[in-house]
Predict the 3D structure of the following.
Amino acid sequence: IDQALAHEHDGDALWIACTHGDVIKAVLADALGVHLDAFQRIVADPASMSVIRYTPHRPFVLHVNHTGTDLSSALRPKPEEPSKAEDAATTHDATVGGSTD
């Protein structure tokens, strides 16, 4: 779904899937590379939000069981012209040492 929506919207799309907690935990487990037998270790409360950014190389789990109001850190910054080295580092890997948000 993500690839089809990204293609339709010029490479970037934000979409929401609402479902039962166990389905959300199974999707999160897959994104984290956790075996499905262990997905019950993940908490997904009613009305909470979890955010996964899918890239061509691997998914990044940005939020799990988020119950606050600010998800701005999950939005991609407006595209600029980064250098090739910066582009490779920011596209395929998470920030070393964690987020700067």
Notes: The chain has one domain: 2-92. The CA atoms of residues 3 and 44 lie 25 Å apart. The helical segments are 2-8, 21-32, 84-92. Residues 21-32 form the longest helix (12 residues).
